[in-house]
Amino acid sequence: MISKFTRIAALAAMMSLAGSAAFAAASDYAFEPVNAELKKGDDVTVAVRLTNKATGKPVVDAVIFRTRVDMAPDGMAEMESPVTPLPVKDPGVYAFKTDLPMAGRYQLTLSAKMQGEPETVTGKVVIKAIK
Fold first, then answer.
1. Whole-model pTM?
2. What is the DSSP string of 29-94?
3. How far apart are CA 57 and CA 86, in angstroms?
4. For the residues 38-51, what does the mean pLDDT come to?
5. C or N: which end of the chain has fewer Cβ atoms within 10 Å?
6. pLDDT band at 25 (very low <50, low <70, confident <90, very high)
7. Residues 88, 107: Cα–Cα separation, whole Å
8. Cβ–Cβ < 8 Å for 76, 46
9. pLDDT tens-place string over residues 58-75
10. 86 in Cβ contact with 107 (< 8 Å)
11. CA 56 from chain center: how many Å?
12. What does the mean pLDDT of the chain come to?
């Protein structure tokens, strides 16, 4: 009887560990620009790819719930532009419409949630607006 209880307890412990190992940390994901240089202007489409660093695979169906575009890399964080999400066309690629009114470096800050992941993934992507 004790042996049976010990086996059940051991099995339960292994299942618990296996279930928790499926979760990745927020640092296991990365945002990267699809195109790091874009023409300055209004209604510019900025696209980023969200990937799992361990597998290199794109992350599909992430929910991007916070975005911000500003010129923080050039010391002008107060130069903020509105950001509008666009429909997803490619797996793991998330696009946004924004204004890049002058040449320089812009920072797109994003926060995302993925189903089954307990942590919020936050990333900063720098893009360069050119003339």
1. 0.79
2. EEEEES-SEEE-EEEEEEEEEEEETTT--B--S-EEEEEEEEEGGGTEEEEEE-EEE----STTEE
3. 21
4. 98
5. N
6. confident
7. 21
8. no
9. 999 999 999 999 999 999
10. no
11. 13
12. 87
